[in-house]
Amino acid sequence: MKTYSGPKALAEYILYQSKHKANKTFLILLVQGILAGMYISIGAIGYLKLAAGLTDPGLGNFLGALVFPVGIIAILLMQAELYTSDSMVMLAVYTGHTKINKILKILFLILIANLIGAIFIAYLTGVAGSFDDKTMALVIEKAVHKVHLPIGKLLASSILCNIIVSTGVCLAYSCREEISKVVVVWLAITVFILSQTEHVVANMYYLFAGYFNGANITLLEIFYHLSVAAIGNFIGGGIIVSGANYLLAYRDIEKIEKSPEE
User: Fold this and answer.
1) With the CA atoms of 209, 212, 218 and 221 taken in that order, what torsion angle do they form, in degrees rounded to the nearest 10?
2) What is the spatial distance between Cα 259 and Cα 262, in angstroms, rounded to a whole number?
3) What CA–CA distance (Å, rounded) separates 162 from 236?
4) Cα 81 to Cα 18: distance, rounded to the nearest angstrom
5) What is the spatial distance between Cα 90 and Cα 74, in angstroms, rounded to a whole number?
6) Within 10 Å of residue 84's Cβ, how many Cβ atoms?
7) What is the mean pLDDT of the segment spanning 214-222?
8) Among 141, 107, 128, residue whose Cα is nearest residue 231
9) CB 94 within 8 A of CB 240
10) Which domains are delineated in the chain?
């Protein structure tokens, strides 16, 4: 597989990844998806501890935003499967290399696996007593706020979220060195946290951590929020970001397919 830059790099990488994901077994996708949900939750724990632990809320939010990307970096380096970035495999549908129903099945499996991982860490957080009263109050406040977002605001925030996250992942795809991948993803995910937008997998952790610890929310409200967030994230990454890069690179895709592998 040759290495390009910009949209060419993204097109080549995603076409390769879509084929690679399609060849993975159910068990592998499930385990890698569970790990991704756990990694994101670990980043969220760090964010919550810092955001709640400092007297200056602005400073706490900023430092928490610097810690949260650890989860995404773990996913990138450990090659786990995260729903939001994986939505960009829709590019393979645009090119005609695969059918949309096949991609949607893979994404749904990964989404459910991410949910299992996030619920597991949310449960362990409560049992282990990881949060003090101040941090738990922030968790509950976040959970209640999120489930009561108006649908229009929730959808728009979710779309924006995955535009930011997927852009960071696109930058990482174009980097050759591991340290470069880490830096660009770190910066992009810090921006996502500071934007306070809605990431479906991170919210799986926030909502269930709140639910397990007495937040006045229901499973139906959690399902509503996560469903809308998942759709918005899909639009942001699977339609807008990957669609734009396809339009920029489509003239080169045939060349990429015909070029000999190295």
Assistant:
1) 10
2) 9
3) 5
4) 12
5) 23
6) 32
7) 97
8) 107
9) no
10) 6-258 (1.20.1080.10)
* CB 80 within 8 Å of CB 35: yes
Structure tokens of 84? 């939001």
Digit-coded pLDDT (tens) for 134-173: 999 999 999 999 999 999 999 999 999 999 999 988 888 7
CB atoms within 10 A of CB 258: 7
Per-residue pLDDT of 24-35, as tens digits, reads 899 999 999 999
> Which value, to the nearest 10 degrees, does the dihedral of the CA atoms of residues 67, 114, 77, 66 take?
-10
Distance CA 235, CA 29 (A): 22
Terminus-to-terminus CA distance in the chain, angstroms? 5
Closest to 51 (Cα-Cα) out of 141, 166, 146: 141
What is d(CA 106, CA 89) in angstroms, rounded to the nearest whole number?
Answer: 10
Q: How many CB atoms are located within 10 Å of the residue 31 CB?
A: 16
Task: Assess contact for 124 and 201: CB atoms under 8 A.
Answer: no
Report in angstroms the alpha-carbon separations of 171 from 5, 81, 107, 164, 198: 9, 18, 22, 11, 21
Amino acid identity of residue 178, one-letter, is E
The DSSP annotation for 50-74 comes to HHHHSSSHHHHHHHHHHHTTHHHHH
Please enumerate in sequence order all residues whose Cβ is within 8 A of that of 48, keeping only pairs 6 or more positions apart, or say none. 64, 131, 135, 138, 139
Residues with Cβ within 8 Å of 253's Cβ and at least 6 positions away in sequence, in order, are: 11, 15, 95, 246
* Entry pTM: 0.90
